[in-house]
Design a protein that fits this description.
Blueprint: E1 7-15, H1 21-29, E2 32-39, E3 42-49, E4 52-59, E5 77-84, H2 88-97, E6 104-111, E7 114-122, E8 129-134, E9 147-148, E10 160-168, H3 173-184, E11 187-189, E12 201-204, E13 211-218, E14 227-234, H4 243-251, E15 255-262, H5 266-275, H6 293-299, H7 304-310, E16 313-317, E17 320-326, E18 337-344, H8 351-370
Parallel strand pairs: 1-4, 5-8, 10-14, 15-18
Antiparallel strand pairs: 1-5, 2-3, 2-9, 3-4, 6-7, 7-8, 10-15, 11-13, 12-13, 13-14, 16-17, 17-18
InterPro entries: 4OHPhenylPyrv_dOase (IPR005956), 4OHPhenylPyrv_dOase_C (IPR041735), 4OHPhenylPyrv_dOase_N (IPR041736), Glyas_Bleomycin-R_OHBP_Dase (IPR029068), VOC_core (IPR037523)
Organism: Monodon monoceros (Narwhal)
GO molecular function: 4-hydroxymandelate synthase activity; 4-hydroxyphenylpyruvate dioxygenase activity; metal ion binding
Length: about 375
């Protein structure tokens, strides 16, 4: 591995001026302002909930925004993952030696709270770039060049980023997996026993051709980097786009489809999001009527009718359970969305929940296409 990632620092978004993403993250999901920078046509606002940090780059300018790139992308999207590395300069040189494009060579930034060095590399995942950051010499709340923003404590619905899911073109997962392994030290994480890394986990459509392939990757041992999930459509002849194909079309190619945010209390978090006006995906009606589902929910110490009312999915057994709920897209283009996830001893993603998400997103995609 050329540049082992030690932790995820932040996820950056690029949106047009006036788009209410930063406001929605605060109002709907409990993120709080952390630091801000306004210069060169950009307003860059960092928001935090627990250890999860989002950087909203709003506007456009003649110069690149700090710690990233202006992707000149046609639609608002999540465009950058910033990883902490031991030595940003050495990491950038090592990746360049592997053939990676380095559009922003190592840059050192300094203010009264210390210094940091970063470089930006292009990834093979569409408009997604990666920032390599060394801020061991910085003592401030975010990064040099940003002004701290005082804020009250948030509701604590989100504690950290659990996973990141990239929507990929068909048959591209093996190539992406090798790239993240060689460049950042990620390794295959099986989602099912005996899984072939080249094939991943295949989720077939309930009727007709097509389906979904998921390949999970984990960062080097000892790092604080979320699991990376590669999602691609299984080839099939259908009259309607599935949700990955729709993302690729609306986003203009591969990219970050959703972020899984860990919550210590998914029922409380979901109630808060809905109460603030957030919109969640509705699971298929048959999900909660599956044989054994009520018993499974009760075994987790939860009330089936409450889960159904709030749209929370549950999978697992033997005292290990996974709870998930998914938002509708945060953008009018119906691309990027968020997931709230709580783990009660479970480490995977639950094949039953994956199928339910697939079906609910197919239904949502159909409604969008018919609108």
């Amino acid at each position: 591995m050329a540049a082992p990632a030690r932790r995820l620092c932040h996820i950056a978004f690029h949106v047009p001026a006036g788009l209410p993403l930063a406001r929605d993250l605060q109002r709907l999901f409990g993120f709080q302002p952390l630091a801000v920078r306004e210069a060169d046509g950009w307003r860059q606002l960092a928001l935090r909930s627990g250890d999860a940090v989002f950087l909203v780059n709003e506007g456009a300018g003649p110069a690149e925004p700090l710690y990233g790139l202006d992707p000149h992308h046609a639609v608002p999207s999540a465009t950058n993952l910033c990883f902490d590395v031991a030595d940003a300069g050495a990491a950038a040189r090592a990746l360049a030696a592997l053939g990676c494009s380095v559009p922003v060579p190592p840059v050192s930034m300094r203010d009264e709270q210390g210094a940091a060095t970063y470089a930006v590399i292009s990834s093979p995942a569409g408009n997604l770039s990666l920032t390599l950051l060394d801020r061991t010499g910085f003592r401030g709340p975010f990064l040099p060049g940003f002004r701290p923003v005082p804020s009250a404590p948030g509701p604590g619905w989100v504690s950290h980023v659990d996973h990141l899911t990239l929507a990929c073109t068909p048959s591209s997962s093996p190539k992406l997996m090798r790239w993240f392994h060689d460049c950042l030290g990620f390794h295959h994480l099986p989602l099912s026993p005996g899984e072939d890394p080249e094939l991943g986990l295949e989720v077939a459509a309930e009727s007709g051709p097509g389906g979904l392939r998921l390949t999970a990757l984990r960062a080097p041992m000892g790092s604080a980097v979320p699991t990376l999930v590669l999602a691609e459509s299984l080839l099939g002849v259908t009259s309607r786009q599935d949700q990955v194909e729709q993302f690729l079309a609306r986003n203009g190619g591969p990219g970050l489809q959703h972020v899984g945010l860990y919550t210590p209390n998914i029922m409380k978090a979901t109630e808060g999001v809905v109460g603030a006006g957030g919109q969640l995906l509705t699971p298929p009606e048959a999900y909660y009527q599956q044989p054994g589902k009520e018993k499974q929910i009760l075994a987790a110490g939860l009330e089936p009718s409450l889960l159904a009312r709030q749209g929370v999915l549950l999978d697992g057994d033997r005292g290990k359970f996974l709870l998930q709920v998914f938002t509708k897209s945060l953008f009018a283009e119906d691309t990027f969305f968020l997931e709230l996830i709580q783990r009660q001893g479970a480490t995977g993603f639950g094949q039953g929940n994956i199928r339910a998400l697939w079906q609910s997103m197919q239904e949502q995609a159909a409604r969008v296409q018919e609108a």
